[in-house]
Amino acid sequence: MRMKRLVIAATAAVALLGGLLAAAPAAPAQAVGTTYYVDAAAGADTNSGTSESAPWKTLGKVNTLTPGPGTRILLKAGSTFTNQYLDLTGSGTASDPIVIGRYGTGAKPKIDFGNTAVGGEGFGVRVTNGSHWTISDLEITSGQHATSMRRNGILILGAGAGGGAFTGIRILNNDIHDVFGRDRRTGGINLHARQASATDPESTWDDVLIQGNTVDNVADTGIQTMTDAFLAGSSWTHMHDAFTNVVIRRNTVTRIHRDGILVRAGVGPLVEYNVTDRIGKYTDANTAVVTYLPAVSVVAAQWAYYTSGAVFQYNEASRTKRIDGDGQPWDFDVEVTDSVYQYNYSHDNEGGTLLMMDDTANNVFRYNISQNDLDRSGAAFSIPFGGGALAVYNNTFYRSAGQTGLLTTSNSAGVVTYTNNVFHNAASGAYAIGGGAVYSNNTFYGTNSSAAPHTGKLTSDPLLEAPGGATSIADAAAAYALGAGSPSRDSGTALGASGAAVASSSNGGVDFAGRLLYQGSGADRGAVEAAGAGAGAGAASVLASETFEAGGFGGWAAVSGSWTVGGAPGALRQSSLSGEAIASAGSASWTDYSVSARLAVATPDGNAGVLMRYADASNFLMLRLNLDTSALELYKRVAGTLTLVASQPVTVAPGQLVSLRADVRGSTVDGWVDGVRLISWTNPVTQLMAGKVGVRSAASAAVVDEVIVRG
After folding, report:
1. SS3 for 524?
2. Do the beta carbons of residue 172 and residue 213 sit within 8 Å?
3. Is the dihedral of CA 129, 133, 138, 139 positive or negative?
4. Which among 301, 310, 322 is positioned nearest to 271, based on CA atoms?
């Protein structure tokens, strides 16, 4: 994505952006801790608005409020608010956020903001200079209009003298469609640090969750973070860290004018379980009416820019268009470092599979599957500028659609290592030689398999189960599993071993489908690890998965403590501040598996973690976060005696959701935090070899979400 620092004169930028800020209205009424109801059909703005029986009628009435901690603004299900919008300020707290949502049953309330504008910009919901907001369960649209302006479905804005450090934004389960704006700072969901004058304080965000939304038929971008620190002449400094602890999860983004999901200026963003399709000049906008769609020459589906520590995983991307260049699903763009794409599935993207731009470093592309991504940007991998180190290992690539470009490429500015990959080439195209490309233990099967000779290379059929047969990420592992007798089984290089090319904490620990690494007598090639020497084909099973979005326990049972399910987003929550609290799920017969969860310890100096091989409250393994000791701790409890067996320092703030994962296989336990393995311990005694999963806290409140067990 050839997007450099925007070349806009500082004075012109200030003038333009300043015009987009509305004049300050009269001070609205305070609305702390009150629930307001709005019914477009049966309401009246002369009502109190504080009960379902006396709702307000218009969003304009809501805009007279300044919400505070605990304020809830609920729109009646089935209502349509035509030529209206929500434009709000104020902040909640972590325990009492401001909520915009719905009440009643039926269709999501619809905000059709049409051709309305505030200060020259249109939006369905705008929150300016606020923390701790939850916006959920809305339909937002505007339609096609001749007026050229910025438009966003949901705009979270930091701007003017009230800009600053914001936190606690939740955007959940909204449907946004048919919104068309004139430039990059427009689209479906947009978090924007806007600089309207040279003296404006710089805005940043921490703790952002964008989950479960659909974004369809919008211009410019589907979901994005943006800071005006990129404007030429800006004195702002947060070009690499304006957005921290951002999670973008389970969204569906389709028919987009430019990019699908784009994280700029991020530290450690997690982008997972999203689907993007038809990215790049795919809207149905009537250009005779919507004459102002911004010029687009390059796009990508899901990518980062000026970002470190990004994790993109379990995503699917298809039909990304190559316009004048690019057109890939995945992109390590300019100044992206220490980031990873893993466990993703891509198909039918015009520009290839992966783009890597200049000034990148220490990035990893592993355990992904590419099915018939095209090569219209010249190769499956496009590295047009000077990038840093890139490790490409244990991926599976299948092509049969007449591709002729290179399958691999590199650039002399940085070394790209290709290890343990499977290339099934039923079309054409060769492999790069020299120029920084280093190979070991890959399988090149099909056309031009003799190219790029290297240590451990195989050219024999990998016996993929159904190459070309995947229909989605859900069945991709089964299609690309190595069949029984495959020479690509057990013949790869074990990455993560002492002295190997990949650091010991960096092979991810599991394959595309969640099977623990490694099985059998050695490492397999490709994205799907087989179940051991001589075993049949297939992928690891998802033994259990629970998001708690349905409002129930979903197979979980409280053993002790005070557990509830709820909140936004839905989660398993423990509130007792005394004694031990345990909840469990699964089968007592489970043996080797991986359990992952998003977990937060809500009590300062508290603790909480996941349980493995749980037999009862007196016998289990536990991987927990302990805020009192600032450590990740591994315990075993046998016959009621709790013993600390391993510990590593880790710093986590109270209430901060982190990704916690424990892998148990035989007598060995590995513990991971945010994708980094911190603990590996082997029990010298044969005990605790089977059992359920669980969660536990001791005299601590905790939140648990997104629990997945694979085995």
Report:
1. coil
2. yes
3. positive
4. 310
β 607-616/619-626 pair status: antiparallel
Q: Which tokens go with 164?
A: 């600053």
Q: How many alpha carbons fall within 13 Å on the CB side of residue 559?
A: 19
- Residue 437 has what DSSP assignment? E
Task: List, in sequence order, every residue forming a beta bridge with 98; answer none if it has no partner.
Answer: 133
Contact 352, 379 (CB under 8 A): yes
Per-residue b or e along 626-639, where b marks 16 or more CB atoms closer than 10 Å to that residue's CB: bbeeebbbbbbbbe
Largest distance between two CA atoms of the chain = 79
Residue among 142, 97, 140, 135 at smallest CA distance from 115: 142
3-state secondary structure of 160: helix
∠ Cα 456 462 464 (to 5°): 150
Coil/strand/helix, residue 260: coil
- Three-state secondary-structure class, residue 11: helix
Find, among 168, 236, 165, 225, the residue nearest to 196 by Cα: 236
pLDDT value at 549 more than 50: yes
Tell which residue, 705, 677, 344, has the closest CA to residue 516. 677
3-state secondary structure (DSSP) of residue 284: coil
Residue 67 has pLDDT above 80, yes or no: yes
Residue 155 three-state SS: strand
Note whether 121 and 111 are within 8 A (CB). Answer: no
* Secondary structure element (H or E) that encloses residue 377, with its range: none
- Say how far apart CA 92 and CA 46 lie, in whole Å: 26
- Distances from the Cα of 414 to the Cα of 105, 182, 368, angstroms: 56, 37, 22
Cis ω before 25 (30° cut-off from 0): no
For residue 483 the two structure tokens come to 């069949």
Residue 220, preceding peptide bond in cis (omega within 30° of 0): yes
pLDDT single digits (tens) 425-460: 999 999 988 778 899 999 999 999 998 889 999 999
Report how far apart the first and last C-alpha atoms of the chain are (Å, whole number). Answer: 38
Query: What are the angstrom distances between the C-alpha of 617 and each of 611, 694, 701?
Result: 10, 10, 19
Q: Are 152 and 180 in contact (CB under 8 A)?
A: no
Residue with tokens 């689907």: 275
Tokens read off for 625: 């976060």
Q: What is the pTM of this model?
A: 0.93
DSSP letter for each residue of 36-66 = EEE-TTT--TTS--SSTTS-B--HHHHTTEE
Name the DSSP letter for residue 468: T
